[in-house]
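Anyone able to model this chain together with magnesium ion?
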Amino acid sequence: MAQRYYTVSWDQLHRDGKALAWRLVGAGPWKGVIAITRGGLIPAAIVARELDCRIIETVSVVTYDEEVKGDPRIVKTAAAAGDGEGWLLLDDLVDTGTTARVVRAMLPKAHFATVYAKPAGKPLVDTFVTEVSQDTWILFPWDTEQQFVPPIARSAGGK
Ligand SMILES: O=P(O)(O)OC[C@H]1O[C@H](OP(=O)(O)OP(=O)(O)O)[C@H](O)[C@@H]1O
Ligand code: HPA
Ligand SMILES: [Mg+2]
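re: yes, here you go
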């Protein structure tokens, strides 16, 4: 299990997604966006909207079951994108870089961008917005929900 958590709200993801679009706007034009599903789908929608890009392809790689990492499994390729030249490849984050390595081998000429990056995966990304430490687990809004928490006085054992 991760040692700490970094919770990302929908609002923050939207803001960070737009910050990513600002970093990418001068690097185009793009033939289209390729989202690495599933985590890259929402960032891809936000960035594609800001870059005025209507063409969205997907590739699917499964690497984790919740917080447990396994061997990466390619579930879907993006044949229309060829070697990726002129395409913008998007994911929510790079952690160990395992998924990025697999996808980069499939689309070596694509520009690879993520919203968040951890140190081990950072060298594989062309553009990202926010770095978090390797022992931090990012909690995305689609994986979480709001719930009641007891007052501090009670959880600290005061009452
Ligand atoms: O750098 P890595 O160590 O490979 O980790 C990053 C990848 O792991 C997560 O995907 P996941 O395999 O959980 O699939 P999902 O996007 O469908 O949730 C995340 O969305 C990235 O794609
Ligand atoms: O920190 C993370 N958060 C969510 N999914 C992930 N997949 C790999 N690392 C992470
Ligand atoms: Mg993913």
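The first helix runs from residue 10 to 24.
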